[in-house]
Model the fold of this input.
Amino acid sequence: MQPTDTKEKLKHQFEAELRINILPYWMDKTIDRRNGGFYGALTNDNRIHNEVERSAVLNSRILWTFSTAARLYQDEAYLSTAKWAMQALTQRFWDPKHEGIFWSVDAAGNPVNDRKHVYAQAFSIYGLSAYFQVTHDPQALQLAKRLFELIDRHTYDPQFGGNIECRARDWSRLEDMRLSTIDLNSSKSMNTMLHLLEAFTALHGIWQDDKLTSRFKNLIALFSNTIIDPVSGHQRLFFDDQWRSLSENISYGHDIETSWLLLEAAEASGQPALIDQAKSNAVKMAQVVYEQSLQPDSSILYEAGPGGHKVTDRHWWAHAEAVVGFYNAFEISKKEHFLQASTRVWTYIQDHFVDHKDGDWFKLLRENGSPYFEHYKVSPWECPYHHARMCYEMIRRLGG
Done:
């Protein structure tokens, strides 16, 4: 068990990282006061690249991050940033013709990619739910509910369960449904379902609706019974309509992230059987990541391909999720090696990912721990959500 003084020290470290480094960086460096919204991309030395398209994923993750900060700390500066993100989401990313959220827009707010990917709709629900919690703005709840209704009507699979990845602007069938250029073009994916689960967890907390509750519980069961491989403890990543696996790749980062998000969802459902199963999965998945991904230098491998080939670059988000996932496994099992792993990864983050000169974190490191300086610090995918959420979670778990 952790001594009280050690817990207090760790809690202080996470709070300082959140409030002195992460949140001020995103407030000070990323807001586009001239055009509205947030810059498309920033380099590691904070040069603005406004020609880069602005993603709904980045905007909604900023909305979630600062809405959560405003609720926890009652800070007007955090609330102001959340309102700025809310304005951008509703005025730039909302499709007035067919409804739903565009994937990306330019600096002027014109659609660049107008497809309706469930991933972006899910993160918008997630951000809107957090915004409603702090502001009680009825528009936020109304939009979150409308997005749920849209994706349920247009993407839910009544025969096999889960949701189809993506639709065109008018919600018609789309041939290329990939989440990104590195992903498989599949009907369904673990990644999209994970963040839909996250969105349903948040929305379920503010809106009691029978259909939402049903979809929410079914999605929890889908992870436990289909997406997670009971033999390997890894998740299957890509699927056809009937949930047949299409890939042998392993994502250690998503495994450790799912290990604690699935338990959070199960606890929100209030179903003892789902909670017990999620706890068992959380410990098993964390143990597999501990054995196969945690390195001697305390870093985390992100992914492995067929035949055991492992990606050696270190990704910021996987490390943030590992801190929480290992600590979550420690809380369930009381096994000290999980506590040590969480603390070790946090130390590695402070030594290698935190940019002590220019703020926030480097997002991608080489195997030796040195950053790729040419990799964006802020971009359509590089956001404040993973590492800010790590801080929120650890502060809460270490004593509120």
